[in-house]
Amino acid sequence: MKPISVLVVDDSAFMRKLIKEFLSEDPRINVVDTARNGQEAIDKIMKLEPDVVTMDVEMPVLNGIEAVREIMNQHPVPVIMLSSTTKAGAENTILAMEAGAIDFIAKPSGAISLDLHKVKVELIEKVLTSSKAKLKPAIKAEIPRIYKTERRARKKNDLDKLILIGTSTGGPRALQEVITKLPEKIDAPIVVVQHMPPGFTQSLASRLHSLSKVSVKEAVHNETLKKGTVYIAPGGFHLRLNEKRGQAYLTIDKEPPVGGHRPAVNALFESAAKLNNYHKVAVIMTGMGSDGTSGIIELKNAGHTTVIAEAEESCIVYGMPKAAVLTKKVDEVVHLESIALAIQNNL
Fold first, then answer.
1. DSSP string, 130-199
2. 146: pLDDT confidence band, cut at 50, 70 and 90?
3. To 10 degrees, what angle do helices 171-179 and 87-99 make?
4. Cα gap 216→204, rounded to integer Å
5. What pLDDT is recorded for position 138?
6. Is the torsion defined by CA of 223, 224, 225, 229 positive or negative?
7. Which pLDDT value is given to residue 218?
8. What spatial distance separates the first Cα and last Cα of the chain, rounded to whole Å?
9. Burial letters for 103-142: b for 16+ Cβ neighbours within 10 Å, e otherwise?
10. Which CATH entry fits the domain spanning 160-345: 2.70.98.90, 3.40.50.180, 3.40.50.11890, 3.40.50.300?
11. What is the spatial distance between Cα 223 and Cα 138, in angstroms, rounded to a whole number?
12. Would you kindly state where each structural domain of the chain is located, as residue ranges?
């Protein structure tokens, strides 16, 4: 089998050398070249046609965000961003993913990370995963029209509603597509688990909040849920739901990872299965692996749950939705563009 060809882009010669050495240790990967800035990267992508690109964010001539935008327009290829965990670094990473990058890795200690070896295994895994990803056109940063759906007559015994969303690789762009289409007065709170390390979920929440009609925020411990608000699990923490006197509230904890993830979709879904006073709409979108699957089974067994899975055609990585569909507990399989409408139709 032909090795995955990779172009390494970084303005630091030290970082280029280090990343190249790490990736070259895996026989399934072949680093075909390196580039010092975004413009050089574009030129080399056109010439070498690599399978995957690792891209620094802060670079001279053409920075990582602008380079990703150009790459997706001219010659789409899976791009993994290497980002610093500073506030500016996190904000730029979210913008790069909006422009079309499919994943990112947080450098352990700033632009020149002498301890990059800490993320070596993650880097190799993400290159291997990204080589199989399907690319989508970049999202335009504008508020799309809100779908208007017919309201169902509310029955006396209708339960309160709760929307749960789980996603991973390709998730930030998928979340933007869904959350920006939800109406301001949606009749439910929305709770989101996006696989992300600490330091990035606040920037994701701020960006989505600036583009959406609903309010979007990073979740806070012991927070009471409000309709029309999106709560995003903080990176590195599990987000669970609890109920007191019929009112749902959030808890945040650092319990061990579930299935290798923290936050884990399963942790959220399994906690929501215990809430009896709510009808749940659970949505599983693009992502590697099977997080969310056991949670879906628990939700369906507990009742009062509709499960929506993203269709294979629109997924960047058809892993988590595929695992969900295989449970035979999924009620609707929906293209990403129609998920917001499907959510509203099930409230």
1. HTTPPP-PPPPSS-PPPP--PPPPPPTTPPEEEEEEEE-TTHHHHHHHHHTTS-TT-SS-EEEEE---TT
2. very low
3. 80
4. 9
5. 58
6. negative
7. 98
8. 48
9. bbbbbeeebebeebeebbeebbebbebbbebbbbebbeee
10. 3.40.50.180
11. 34
12. 4-130, 160-345
User: Regarding beta strands 332-334 and 305-310, do their DSSP bridges make them parallel or antiparallel, or are they unpaired?
Assistant: parallel
For residues 347 and 190, the answer to whether their CB atoms sit within 8 Å is no
- Report whether 287 contacts 170 (CB < 8 A): yes
* Amino acid symbol at 89: G
> Where does the pLDDT of residue 140 fall: very low under 50, low under 70, confident under 90, or very high at 90 and above?
low
Q: Give the burial string for 206-241 (b: 16+ CB within 10 Å, else e).
A: bbbbebbebebbbbeeeeebeebbbbbbbbbbbbbb
- Would you name the residues annotated as active-site residues? 168, 195, 291
Identify any residues that bridge with 251 across adjacent strands, giving them in sequence order. Answer: 240
Amino acid making up residue 223: E
What is the CATH topology of the domain spanning 4-130?
A: Rossmann fold (3.40.50)
pLDDT digits (tens, 9 = 90+) for 120-132: 999 999 999 999 9
Q: Is residue 323 within 8 Å of 298, Cβ to Cβ?
A: no
From residue 136, alpha-carbon distances to 103, 173, 271, 301, 317 in Å are 13, 10, 33, 35, 11
User: Are both 4-130 and 160-345 of the same fold?
Assistant: yes
**Strand 52-56's sheet: what is its strand order?**
29-35, 4-9, 52-56, 79-83, 103-106
> Beta strand pairing status for 247-253 and 332-334?
unpaired
pTM, to two decimals: 0.91
- Angle at which helix 201-211 crosses helix 171-179, to 10 degrees, equals 30
